[in-house]
Design goal:
The protein is mainly alpha-helical. 61% of the residues lie in helices and 3% in strands.
Length: 294
């Protein structure tokens, strides 16, 4: 059975790559300008400018918080996209914006400080695409069971509780406090992004189908309707459905890999991670054919 139609596939293939241009493996993360509504946020170029301007004004702060400031700015201002062709939303800034601004700047500072004699050779290798040489501390494998068990709000709340506990007992160091502040601010921004996406899905559903009520007064199934509803659920707590779990994995990956710049080297052991959600949906009457469409 075919689970995706040709129109949907064409849209999905063009979300993050321009099918009208040759694929460039050295610049494979494309912020498409033509498919995102300008009213939903700022352009990637302006976001990068603002990140550098804001950082220059706060150069004396902890780098933990400076990087958080940049990630939060992207999350709050990136243009977003939802469509009846796709169960998953899109964000425009997927070219590792924070990494290409602040982290790249700090990386060069590190190279010049610790091995200045090879800094130009490293830059040449990078420019030509021969190799990328850099202090590699940005690969990660998320603990997906905890992420799906707690949800974004649960992780934020857990960190807030640990911060209070440390502050009230043995005391908290300046670095620890900066870490907990960063967690709180960034996860709060992720939740705002999810609510923005949910509101956009709701408004797009109404705009695309203003007279879509069934004769019994209910709303027919649509990708936008399901997306808006599931996004609201995962903005308040952990996912409850197979689709909700997929959305959490997708959003976490996009934020971590493409916005925050911490490479995410695993989408989990999908069979073990998702099977409980899959079985629960089947038990409550969701057809297996429906689950396979996600």
């Amino acid at each position: 059975m075919k689970y995706i139609n040709d129109g949907d596939l064409e849209f999905i293939m063009g979300k993050y790559h321009d099918p009208g241009k040759p694929f460039d493996p050295l610049h494979r993360f494309v912020c498409r300008e033509d498919i995102f509504d300008k009213s939903t946020g700022l352009s990637p170029a302006i976001i990068k400018e603002r990140i550098l301007e804001n950082d220059a004004a706060n150069a004396g702060r902890s780098r933990i918080l400076r990087k958080t400031d940049a990630s939060v700015f992207v999350l709050d201002n990136t243009r977003i996209l939802v469509s009846e062709h796709d169960y998953f939303p899109a964000v425009q800034c997927i070219d590792r914006t924070v990494g290409k601004t602040l982290v790249k700047m700090w990386q060069k500072e590190t190279e010049s400080l610790f091995f200045p004699e090879t800094a130009e050779e490293i830059a040449l290798l990078d420019r030509t695409g021969a190799a990328s040489v850099y202090p590699d501390y940005d690969h990660s494998v998320p603990v997906w069971a905890r992420i799906l068990g707690l949800g974004f709000e649960g992780i934020r709340a857990e960190a807030e509780g640990l911060r209070r506990r440390l502050s009230g007992t043995a005391g908290i160091t300046e670095k620890q406090d900066a870490f907990f502040e960063a967690v709180d601010r960034e996860y709060s921004a992720v939740l705002r992004l999810i609510r923005r996406l949910s509101a956009l899905a709701e408004s797009e559903e109404k705009r695309n189908a203003p007279s879509s009520e069934k004769t019994d007064g209910t709303t027919p199934d649509s990708k936008l309707h399901e997306l808006g509803k599931e996004l609201l659920t995962v903005s308040a707590g952990p996912p409850k459905t197979f689709y909700g779990a997929l959305l959490v994995i997708y959003i976490y990956f996009v934020v971590c890999e493409h916005i925050d710049g911490l490479q995410t080297r695993s989408l989990s052991g999908l069979d073990r991670t998702l099977l409980p959600f899959y079985r629960r949906d089947l038990a409550r009457g969701v057809p297996e054919e429906k689950l396979r469409t996600y």
